[in-house]
Each structure stands twice: as structure tokens, then as C-alpha cells.
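Q: My labmate handed me this sequence with no annotations at all. I'd like to see what the chain might look like in three dimensions before we decide whether it's worth expressing. Could you predict it?
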Amino acid sequence: MSFTFPAIKPGARLADQVAASLEAEIRAGRLTQGEKLPTEQALAQQFGVSRTVVREAVSRLKSMGLVDARQGSGMYVARPDFEPLQFDPLTSASKEAVLQIVEVRRALEAEVAELAATRRSQADVRAIREALQAIDAAVQAGRDGVEEDVAFHRTIAQAAGNPFLIHTLDYLSQFLRGATRVTRANEARNAHFAADVLREHQALVAAIEAGDPTGARAAAAQHMKNAARRIDQADPAFWQQDGGRYARDLIAAEPRLSAPVLPPA
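A: Here is what I predict for the chain of 265 residues:
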């Protein structure tokens, strides 16, 4: 390698800054495919950080498919065959990011609901109703209901009968899961919010069961619009505590093509 990296500045997470700097060099072609990265110790010295920070940054690059580890040799630049979906970790953990992801969910889940209403079988309807009941049981047991919410929406997607759509949603769900934790944590703080969510879920299930694709699309879209409204109405203390912590989960996992979960609500 013919150049060195400048020391990073204090502020945002150090590992994020190191990863962003290395990624920029790779994407710009200044670090080329097959080129060996400096050692962990050398990078730590150049960036002015600990080896633990460098290790975390390089791990992120590996998950993005930008570097490969060769046993006994080190880390090498590897151009991915496709451009992986990713978000800027310095801006994604915010209220604005959560609202934007809810917008993405509105577009996706409205289509899923319409298809489910058109194609559902009686077995699908029973499974959807059981999944809805499981959310309430989880809440009554003192849990947040996030995993049950995941199962509920994935059951609806299965009723839509399009494996390509399901796999696309599975892939995106790694980013959407954090947004769902934010919405459910916010709704749990307000009894009216929780009651509204239950009614919205029930309206969605009723439209699917009735075979009403227009009504199902409208119910799913309205559910997401209301979720955005509830997030926007959250008090500042929520974002300083649970909201901010859960928003950071938006970028906690780097997506791979075979991820198996649908975005919850």
C-alpha cells in the first residue's frame, strides 16, 4: 500500500469512522481487488485508535463483502458481485430514519396485504388469526410482542403466495426490525396507542378474511400511516431513552441475501 490513513477525529463511533474511511478507498479504487490491507496494528497506529476498534471496522467490511480473510496471511480487498444494501451508520439511528423506514414498510405491506386478500386460503386465515392472538398473549405475559409481530406479518406474506416478494421482504427485514422495536416500545407507553394498534391489526385481518383486496391494502397503508403519526407524537424523553436505543438497532445487522424474517409492525 502506497499511502497511509489520517487519524480520525473524536465524535461519532470510532469503528464507524474507520470502516467508512476504508470503504471509501475501496469503492474509489484506491484499494484494489486482491490488495492486502495493512496489519491490524498498523491500521490502529495510522487511525489513532485501538486494535479493537480496527477489528470491529474490518468485521463490518467483511459482512459487506468488501474484504476477505485469508488464513495465516491477512485481510485482502474483495469486490462484491453485487452492491449490498446499507445505510450510513452515522445518520440511521434517529427518529427521522425510523419514520422513513415506516414509509418503506407502507409501500411493501400494502401490496402484501392486497395479494393476501386475493389468494388466501382458509388455512391461511386461521394462521393469521392465531398469529394475531399470539401478539396479545405476549403482551399480557409482559413481553414486548416484537417477535410475535414478526410472525404475524410474515404469516400474511405467506398468504400472498409470492416467494420472490417474501424473500425480498426477508432481506429488508434486518433493517426494519429496529423500526418495529421503536414503534412497539412507543405504543406500550400509551394505552390509547396500544388499543389503536390492536384495532388496526383486526381491520387488516378482517379485510383479508373477507377477500377484500382494496380494503386490505387500505388497512395496511393506514396502519403504517398511523404508526408514523404515533412515532412523531412520542415525547422527547422517549427518544432520549428507549427510542434512541432501539433506533440504533436499525444498523445492528448487515444484510445477507438469505435472511429469513419479514418486517414486523
